């Protein structure tokens, strides 16, 4: 799309050349290929490697690589998953690397090829981790958020009780996948996100939809999902500028000037007209359908049509200047009928195949316009008909790596302990509690495997977050020493993991594991 536009660039700029200043501004805002036409092949090669990586590698069940090495975190999944990442990386290097015929300068850093995106302003590979906020910013952001809440009179304990207090934390993979999904959805390609149960698919898509919803959602501007990645170097420049300015401005001014003086906000006007040619500033209306085992085709149709309006006699579409984005959660859920078909899924297939549905009352065909679909399901691909699957671009969300879980725990526990003025001894034991939690989670996942009689032995991230929620209920007056902190942890871990175990052998194994980990970390 971008390349096609190079030719029409002149026409475009003529149309827009209201003032001389305008043209100047456009000039500095052009993408790399336009500024350096001689390097066109270079950028296309790099973009091809990126596209190849995600087109073929995106569907591989692989392991999220750790951002940095935390010594006591054992790798969560089996080695084979890490090997997939490594093998694919090797393949890409063999196909496109310096020693191959093509000879592209591939990144040589620590991460595999999955860890990089192409910055099309600079024609360079940049690690995704640069886009993910680091622990320190997370903690800072969390603390400021909480102090604001406290100032407004809300009690932190209350917030924890309603169970909504675990903030969503972007990881490298979710950042990357939401970028890819937005890009696909922007171009009206259906996307399917798969991954083991409880790795955060629903959470990741909801987070993305929250950002996308509203007018100008797919614009390439600062703060939008696409903009954050595509305008990477520009944002980086302005944020380093911002940092320099904040150092210069004394404390008192900072609060006074606040957001209005925020230099990162300034370039927001830049929305790339060329990329948005077809769907200029269209908004997005999101509608979510949770599939369950007993959902019917009629109900599915009703949910799809809910937010659509009549455009012409036989055409339905999104409200004016909008497009509809349908999120189908747990798409694998509907059970097959006696003939082996899944009616709700057949309806979706018809929608994607023919671009519409039948009005069953009047027996007429209705076209549906401006509709994109994003779906999530667990990887039981043979449950879904290939006729439907073929429409989707499939992406796999790997299990978050241990260091991300560590960060999430650290941010939340740290915040909770410091806001509620726990004793320094308890605050210090935070790291031990976290290491213990991760270790016991890892052990339970490895040792308590589901069998036909124990099919509920499915321990995933949800249990991990239940444990965290439990820890976040600590009372300052009771938890006042390291021993009490350890006891609290033991109690919560027992409730989350032990209470689901069925027989005596499993239970005693759990206690053995628990005491071993406690000894390891609490001495
Ligand atoms: N990055 C994250 N930050 C915070 N919580 C997360 C994150 N990823 C997953 N979770 C939590 O993990 C749990 C399971 O996620 P969910 O999206 O329901 O999994 P799935 O849909 O893949 O089965 C949810 O409680 C969710 O809030
Ligand atoms: Mg889900």
What can you tell me about this protein's structure?
- There is one protein chain.
- This protein has 523 residues and is α/β, with parallel strands linked by helices.
- The protein has 21 helices and eleven strands.
- It has three domains: 31-131, no CATH class; 172-217 and 278-399, Rossmann fold, CATH 3.40.50; 400-522, Up-down Bundle (Histone Acetyltransferase, Chain A).
- The chain has a five-stranded parallel sheet, with helices on both faces. A four-stranded mixed sheet has the order 5-6-9-8.
- Helix 13 (297-305) crosses helix 14, helix 16 (402-419) runs antiparallel to helix 18 and helix 18 runs parallel beside helix 20 (482-496).
- It is globular and about 70 Å long.
- The chain starts with a helix and ends with a helix.
- Bound molecules: adenosine-5'-diphosphate and magnesium ion (MG).
- Magnesium ion (MG) binds next to helix 9.
Write the layout of secondary structure elements.
Elements: H1 2-16, H2 20-28, H3 32-35, H4 40-56, H5 79-96, E1 116-119, E2 124-127, H6 135-151, H7 156-161, H8 172-186, E3 191-194, H9 201-212, H10 225-230, H11 232-248, H12 251-257, E4 283-290, H13 297-305, E5 309-312, E6 315-317, E7 322-329, H14 343-354, E8 356-359, E9 364-368, E10 371-377, H15 386-389, E11 393-396, H16 402-419, H17 424-428, H18 430-447, H19 461-471, H20 482-496, H21 504-522
The structure holds adenosine-5'-diphosphate and magnesium ion (MG).
Quick gist of this model?
The protein is of the alpha/beta class. It is 49% helix and 11% strand. The strands form three sheets. A five-stranded parallel β-sheet has the order 4-7-10-3-11, with helices on both faces.
